Amino acid sequence: MNTVLRDFDPVPSTRYRIRVGVASLKQAADVADALAVPVAAGTEPPEELGVDLAGLGSAGFTGQRGQTLVQPRSDGPVRVAVGIGGRDEIDTTLVRDLAAEFARAVPWLKNLAVEVPSEASSGIAVADFAQAATEGVLLARWRYFVGRDADQPTLESLQIVAADEDAAAAETGVERGRIVAAACSLGRDLANCPATTLSAVRMAEVAVEVGTAAGLEVEVFDKDQLIELGCGGLLGVNRGSVEPPRMIRLRYQPAEPTGRIALVGKGIMYDSGGISLKPSDESHAQMKNDMTGAAAVLAGMTALRDLGCTSAVTGYLMCTDNMPSGSAMKLGDVLTMRNGTTVEVLNTDAEGRLVMADALALATEEPVDAIVDIATLTGACLRTFGVEVAGVMGNDPAVVEQLRRAGDVVDEPVWELPLHKSYRSQLDSTIADLTNMGGINAGSITAGLFLQEFVDGKPWGHVDIAGTAQLPAPRTWRNKGATGFGTKLLIEFALRFVPPGS
């Protein structure tokens, strides 16, 4: 899946011209360059491989989970036998991963096909199998590249091969997979776009463009309006920048909502640390991704209408960069947040919680069943969980559990950390209501405790994606660089949301 930029435009273009659909084996053979054929361990393979179980075994292929065997052909597409293990081992995470591995195994081929077995054979509903396979291939072939030949597609077509009796279910799964992959790709595009190009102002323009097209109501608040709203956190962080701030509010409103959710995304377009300047190292160079939370909220909400979400969702994107200058926020400054809370700034590199505090306060001013924020918030979370698991905290077990389940389904896992009450004293200030920093330990937890001060007791969950927002190398459907982590998580959470206590 290839991103083409118009003067480094972060809005995707050519990926939506990829042909994705359901076909018979004969139809796929006419257009595909490579066909993935799932083979369960210990079972005879489908006839299209042209070899039986004993023949595969002679090449060392037994159908065990993760095995692949490429079969060059002169009479049609390359066949790739893909081991899916025993029937009780198969789940959608495995399907998504193996579809991605198939796509990566033949990177020079641009017309791919994946065969979907019957539910009786795989133990997975055909629609779910087709969705996971579609996501895996499309996301594995995504790339963000602005060099020579950037306009050359990495994928031209994807066919999901299903039996006639399974075609309707496969169509449903393919369409859902296409929508989710497009949203996830948008999140990646935004998180990978250079910060000079994707300013807060440009982020607002993108939100208007893609949000309106997805049926969202989009409101953009400029600096003067933020002053009127009393958003002292966002305005304080913005003081050192020549780029003006923006708050973007997105609304998705179904006809008869079954629940009401507020999503808050950290949108630090570039984080130098401000006066508390970051060291000039690799992590500093990655700080264009410090708006991954806002990207995930925007990207995820673009999928809600087409996936039939029944909950009303309001998104807040808090966008600015954090820069050092003569006008920058200083250590010891006191900011007044939207809800009137005063915060003493002890570290200007703890800025994400300042901008999010304003949005959390705004979210409580409307009827809401749950508030969820998502942010690249603390290095402590990276050190705790590494790059594959995000942290989650909250004041309501039902909200936290729904986030955990959503992460498990889409393979964007989260693990709960405790909001240990005694650590709250680390945020005490002698001159203000709060400080923006705790002690040297439990940094992820004290950051969560800070945010909790602004939710007014409403059911709330906090997802810290500081570790998962960046990967050092590609793995299955995940890309190297800024990952856009959280888009699929938020989509799944919104689709399955049940108001706490209902």
Briefly, what is this?
The chain is α/β, with parallel strands linked by helices and 502 residues long.
Question: Would you kindly provide a written description of the structure presented here, covering whatever features stand out?
Answer:
- The protein is built from 17 helices and 21 strands.
- It has 502 residues and is of the alpha/beta class.
- An eight-stranded mixed sheet has the order 9-10-12-11-15-19-16-17, with helices on both faces. Strands 2-8-6-3-5-4 form a six-stranded mixed sheet, sandwiched between helices.
- α3 (92-105) runs parallel beside α5, α5 (126-140) packs parallel to α6 and α6 (167-192) runs antiparallel to α11 (292-301).
- Residues 1-8 have low confidence and may be disordered.
What topology emerges from the helices and strands here?
Elements: E1 2-3, E2 19-23, H1 25-31, E3 34-39, H2 53-58, E4 68-71, E5 78-83, H3 92-105, E6 111-115, H4 119-122, H5 126-140, E7 143-144, E8 157-161, H6 167-192, H7 200-213, E9 217-221, H8 223-229, H9 232-238, E10 246-252, E11 260-271, H10 282-285, H11 292-301, H12 304-307, E12 312-322, E13 334-336, E14 342-344, H13 352-363, E15 370-375, H14 379-385, E16 390-394, H15 397-410, E17 414-416, E18 434-435, H16 443-452, E19 460-464, E20 470-471, E21 481-482, H17 487-495
Parallel strand pairs: 1-7, 2-8, 3-5, 3-6, 6-8, 11-12, 11-15, 14-18, 15-19, 16-17
Antiparallel strand pairs: 4-5, 9-10, 10-12, 13-14, 16-19, 20-21
Helix pairs in contact: 3-5, 5-6, 6-11, 9-13, 11-17, 15-17
